[in-house]
Design a protein that fits this description.
alpha+beta, 4-stranded mixed sheet, two-stranded antiparallel ribbon, 2 helices, 6 strands, 13% helix
Length: 121
């Protein structure tokens, strides 16, 4: 379970030392389609989720509502095959470039950002 301390995981200690986490030990993970650049979704990770993502090649997140790890596509079949992972300049967010199979959003939409665009003033 995430904590404010660096969790014991198989994540490279040099990467773990750079990461900035929130009070719950989490950081945002933005999933982007690798070939089109489309932003698909935002999930949350801790060190263990990142370690699992890097070692398995499948996006693994921490569910804040269920308080458990989930591998994208295990129940829906809508897998995210990881192509690359990068830290942002502040090391407080990761960008996961994926090959998305099926919709990324739990609502069935291709992207979590498809349904509710806001108008600019």
């Amino acid at each position: 379970m995430p904590s404010n301390d660096i969790p014991a995981s198989s994540l490279d200690p040099a990467v773990a030392a750079r990461l900035k986490r929130d009070a719950n030990g989490l950081f945002p993970a933005v999933a982007q389609q690798h070939d089109t650049g489309e932003v698909l979704m935002l999930g949350w990770m801790d060190d263990e989720a990142l370690s699992r993502t890097l070692s398995s090649g499948r996006a693994t997140y921490w569910s804040r509502s269920r308080q458990e790890y989930w591998v994208k596509g295990d129940t829906s079949g809508h897998v995210q095959w990881v192509k690359s992972v990068a830290l942002d300049c502040d090391a407080d967010t990761v960008l996961i470039k994926v090959d998305q199979v099926g919709p990324a959003c739990h609502t069935g939409a291709h992207s979590c950002f498809d349904a509710d665009p806001l108008a600019l003033s």
